[in-house]
Amino acid sequence: MMIDTSLVAGENETRTADLKRDYETLGERLDRRGVSIDAIKAKVAAYGVAVPSWGVGTGGTRFARFPGKGEPRHIFDKLEDCSVIQQLTRATPNVSLHIPWDKADPAELKAKASSLGLGFDAMNSNTFQDQDGQPLSYKFGSLSHTDAGTRRQAVEHNLECIEIGKAIGSRALTIWIGDGSNFPGQANFTRQFERYLDAAKAIYAELPDDWRLFTEHKMYEPAFYSTVVQDWGTNYMIAQELGEKAYCLVDLGHHAPNANIEMIVARLIQFGKLGGFHFNDSKYGDDDLDTGSVDPYRLFLVFNELVDAETRKAPGFDPAHMLDQSHNVTDPIESLMVSAMEVQRAYAQALLVDRSALEGFQDTNDALMATTTLKTAFRTDVEPILAMARLENGGAIDPVAAYRSAGYRQKVAEIRPEVSGAGGGIV
Amino acid sequence: MMIDTSLVAGENETRTADLKRDYETLGERLDRRGVSIDAIKAKVAAYGVAVPSWGVGTGGTRFARFPGKGEPRHIFDKLEDCSVIQQLTRATPNVSLHIPWDKADPAELKAKASSLGLGFDAMNSNTFQDQDGQPLSYKFGSLSHTDAGTRRQAVEHNLECIEIGKAIGSRALTIWIGDGSNFPGQANFTRQFERYLDAAKAIYAELPDDWRLFTEHKMYEPAFYSTVVQDWGTNYMIAQELGEKAYCLVDLGHHAPNANIEMIVARLIQFGKLGGFHFNDSKYGDDDLDTGSVDPYRLFLVFNELVDAETRKAPGFDPAHMLDQSHNVTDPIESLMVSAMEVQRAYAQALLVDRSALEGFQDTNDALMATTTLKTAFRTDVEPILAMARLENGGAIDPVAAYRSAGYRQKVAEIRPEVSGAGGGIV
Amino acid sequence: MMIDTSLVAGENETRTADLKRDYETLGERLDRRGVSIDAIKAKVAAYGVAVPSWGVGTGGTRFARFPGKGEPRHIFDKLEDCSVIQQLTRATPNVSLHIPWDKADPAELKAKASSLGLGFDAMNSNTFQDQDGQPLSYKFGSLSHTDAGTRRQAVEHNLECIEIGKAIGSRALTIWIGDGSNFPGQANFTRQFERYLDAAKAIYAELPDDWRLFTEHKMYEPAFYSTVVQDWGTNYMIAQELGEKAYCLVDLGHHAPNANIEMIVARLIQFGKLGGFHFNDSKYGDDDLDTGSVDPYRLFLVFNELVDAETRKAPGFDPAHMLDQSHNVTDPIESLMVSAMEVQRAYAQALLVDRSALEGFQDTNDALMATTTLKTAFRTDVEPILAMARLENGGAIDPVAAYRSAGYRQKVAEIRPEVSGAGGGIV
Amino acid sequence: MMIDTSLVAGENETRTADLKRDYETLGERLDRRGVSIDAIKAKVAAYGVAVPSWGVGTGGTRFARFPGKGEPRHIFDKLEDCSVIQQLTRATPNVSLHIPWDKADPAELKAKASSLGLGFDAMNSNTFQDQDGQPLSYKFGSLSHTDAGTRRQAVEHNLECIEIGKAIGSRALTIWIGDGSNFPGQANFTRQFERYLDAAKAIYAELPDDWRLFTEHKMYEPAFYSTVVQDWGTNYMIAQELGEKAYCLVDLGHHAPNANIEMIVARLIQFGKLGGFHFNDSKYGDDDLDTGSVDPYRLFLVFNELVDAETRKAPGFDPAHMLDQSHNVTDPIESLMVSAMEVQRAYAQALLVDRSALEGFQDTNDALMATTTLKTAFRTDVEPILAMARLENGGAIDPVAAYRSAGYRQKVAEIRPEVSGAGGGIV
């Protein structure tokens, strides 16, 4: 444990009486609605969201990056930071790696994670940047590049990610590419997509039987006129073309303005192709803001679809959950803790929806009572449920308070050298 | 002919010398680029876009409708107006009917159209409004309604449209519905879509072998939280579920802000599911503005995809073209004439693209020259080509001038009674 | 009272014990945060939002309107419906009239309202529709029309609204126009705005000293290329040009996609020009959905600005509050009751923000704790506070349940004749 | 001259005959419209747009930057690249510097520019990045930072920019800041804007009498929940608060989706506060794509406003013009040349608008002919005018062809060392 357990215990002690009282009175109210608070708590306690290794470093924009103190130097530092999040929230048992950023000896990775009580989630490949010494550039694309050699290089990088993943116990590969175009006419949409599909099939062919392949769509950025996998429609085509182990990944910030994301989620579930999520929030584009920080009701509505599918046992429904955010002005550990709890919060709220009443209102077109049924669940303050689940799982009632009290950031800042500000892409 | 041909001839006479001169000098310039102006003209001359019967009436908004003078009273007036458009532009040989708005004896419809030199395009059903005496309301949906009887009524209306279409020589049915929801929770997305698919299959089952079924997606309006066929992804699922006679219709104004529409067109062509277009333009939403009036380059980029598919003979490529606009502040006949010419203009410009040079620039990632290749075609003023095609086909060099000179609107205004202003949906 | 008070009392009786218990335990929790629940309740109890007379009729879109049962026939029916909302929620003491829709003898209006315990809020003029017998059409604009006579007619209509308002005790005039253009070039932006300013000044010149003039901006619809008062920037220019009695009205649905509305509110407060609100919610455009139904956190963030201004006693801060929604698929009375309560909910949540802690976090750039401070207030379930305020004010603990139990809609449906479905503006 | 003039002459020679012929036949057609081609050419020839020093380096995104060959190492290399653009296009006589990126001895700067035939445009300050050794960080803001010392540092940096500008002959300062917030509640909008205004006033106070201050608004990025100068409304407030030397700068990519930018331009002209432009194009956000590459008609509509103001001699109308783009996949010199010509093209097209006819159509609400008047001008292929102006001014008929033929990039690549790919802000 990276943080002294007695410190956490001490922090919890000051909050336990109030929590018990709040849990009890909330339980009483839920009881009146016919809901068992303990059953909700049990589900929440069993619910985890993966943390991305790169999320524990301070993010940036094309204009600038302003590093914080005690930035992790490498994947082993990152794993330690991730373990703090898991220790205090008990909501993030797994870490998702990004290759080549996190490249290291698989045995060492596994040993380190294991010692910290962490597992590994999906592997993420990177063909949107050039690495030192890389023979062919991705400036004009990777899996969909006009040059066959560049496509092959990108395919092989993905195969390497699978190999590393196999060695450390991962079971999924996530592909997100920056391919697209910045000018009308720069790329032929059709031939570009054909090339993409060919390359994706080459990766899929090497996917182990018990793995899943997640492809991720994004409307724009880094390409600013068109992207190859621009929306869920194209993403769905890909999953269909590749086969039954191929699924669509939904990043909440990768859609057009005003898009009804919960509906996209419903469609993918209905057709058996929802692979999972990259959670974050956005106001303008792929802002990568903290999950639930801008539009918490939208997050709830997504979880309303997930709990609906879970309840009716939708065939093949088993989405992967991961946070994917850029922490530019906060301590990344704090943001990831709060975000993991926001995911649990939305899940708990969605579990509170009276689904049989909802179905009745839907069938009779009682729109007002249908939406009120959702709102009633959403506005229930489920914090006592989340906190009690954490407490009972060995976490902190108030993870941010415990983290600050422990002085973790200051401690690692003494070990990890200061990083100077790095300019963004514009210079 | 609704307009005196000698009047048109007289109008043309005053413009012919200049046109010939401009056609000649443009031909000279195109020749230098290796393009035969006559070949382009021949293609343009053979290119038509259907006119919607409802387009010749003044449109409105939910706030108000401000009728013009001489509004058509019924489908026979509308056909006369449509024939004026065709007479002067020679670009709109077919009319698309909307049932029940245009319901009439099929034999009379056919005779009238035939006498005016018009044919019939796709049939359009209407289950987004309640008609007088209609047993069940579409307030809460039609093909996806929770009530089986209402769905059946909507299916049967579509079957009736097919019957009428068969009688008048149509070969396609276009379905656009207003179904959706205004509140989160009002509808269960999954069950609603299941119901839609069932109903659509019931219609498809009765589709004649030589017909096509077009389904149309729309992001919002009249439903304002969700729509059943919200985007091309769902539309594509429908076409796949229904079968090989089912295709996706693209209305240029039905997308999310910033959507890359030309790319959606390319994807649907690639997967053999592009059914056709409802042309118009938009700045904010489904504004139904005149085609090419706000973003003419976007229209060109759509046609760039169409000509690309035509050139490489994409399998099954045979899209239907129709205008679908709301003329709130102009004479609808004038707007439809100008819009039909804008469609031809975009087509002519797209034909000018040097596709072999473009392919070379694409293959070598010469983005600047690739986009310049498109721009060079786009900025060519092809008006002499369009005008010469009209002249040689018996139309007007300047259709708007000829129309105004003929005083058609004033003449029908004497016959057709004045319509008083109708309030929109808000009161 | 339109609804039998004993029925309301009976409904309340079944819910009082639970409410007291919930109020008590919430009070306990707030006490721990240093907040007095009674003080919050008192503020909520004193907080009202005006109801628009037109809101009690079923709304529609340009495609269709689907009337409900028992639609109000005239302003006196509308006032009765409004009084039901006030009786059950105690949150809507005033009604806002729209002229000429609500034109009637002022003395009768006043007497009727008074007998129902209602007052009158801002007057709304209508120059976006043509009325029967109106000499000059607003098809091409009203206050900014190119024709001086039409502008004068529009000015005079507004002056008439002021006269009516004076007679019934209103103190404000709200101007929203549909003026704009549908085509690039249709209007000269500059001259059009000059004409608008001249006309607005002519109205302002006749405004009584104790009145306020509210102008409302809107990005688009019914004009679809440009609108004269397109955003808050132009609205602010107008308020500056007119004088100190002129203020900007903010309708939550009238902005560009992704706009940060709470920030616009803050800017207008800071420069002393926030006149008030038209509350509703939107997902795509001016959807006129029920307040708080799509993005309740955004509504809270707006109220966070209002409470901030209230707390620091911002000079001249005194915004008017009104609901402005279109109820297409619900009983309008139910939607307005729920929406009025959503406004109160947002206000109550905003009152719970620990403003001194927030200021501290802001000053030290502790973004995470600052936003958590807002979230903590937002996720507090304040329903017991709202319900207790209603109960103590003579309203219903659960207004929708009481309303349904009273069978009001069925009763008026027996008196008020059925209205047949009216087509929207497209036909 | 960086490129051998005989090479340019040779390139031109092969194109001169065709150009003369095209210029002649276009002149003939314009003559028929009552337009003198030579008068248009003269205006175009006198029309310049500034080039940003940073534009000649390859841009990037937060994901990656893929440098090209022969990247400029410092401001003196950049000035040489800029001079190539000017030599071939004769459209970019001035360069705009960014401090501290371009910091150098003013005398050397001036001498170098002078030797290359270049002048200096507006100075740009940078308080959105931290520089090595900078005492206080801009992580949480600059001119609006909560810390007075940080604000002072930012003010002083701007004053230094003025000093440098005075030394090299600049006459304007452009301020764009990244200040804002990423979380609701992170910043108090009102106090943040008060701080901004105070700091801006401190800069304004030191502005030389013959200088102008340009402030630039931007909806989002790098701040993703709110920005201090989020739109033109706030920008206008700033210009009003500061005084008569303060003006608003409009960057075409800094607006909300669907915003009518030409209307914003008209409003700022009308109220005497349009300072100038940063030209580029965008499809999704601040994409910084090449000017006119995505929506050339929008660019034309902006110039339609500028020519309208020029024609009617709007008081105080004297906007500054600059390109501001990010060239991620093209040779920056080529992109800047093409973009400068696109600016000239839009200007030439706008000059062709028959303004007296337009005014007539506007006054009579003939929307169709009004918009056709604009379209007729827009679709005129003015390339012969631009090319002739270049030729007569000593530039190249086809600047891209001449540039490629000269092999400039290969030559500088031999001198300037290869730059390795730099990761973006996310790592």
Automatic annotation (TrEMBL), chains A, B, C, D:
Source species, domain of life: Bacteria
GO molecular function annotations of the record: isomerase activity
Keywords in alphabetical order: Isomerase, Manganese, Metal-binding
The keyword NAD is assigned to this record: no
InterPro entries associated with the record: L-rhamnose_isomerase, L_rhamnose_iso, Xyl_isomerase-like_sf
Claim: DNA-binding is one of the keywords in the record: no
Name under which the protein is recorded: L-rhamnose catabolism isomerase
Organism: Roseibium algicola
Upper taxonomic lineage: Bacteria, Pseudomonadati, Pseudomonadota, Alphaproteobacteria, Hyphomicrobiales
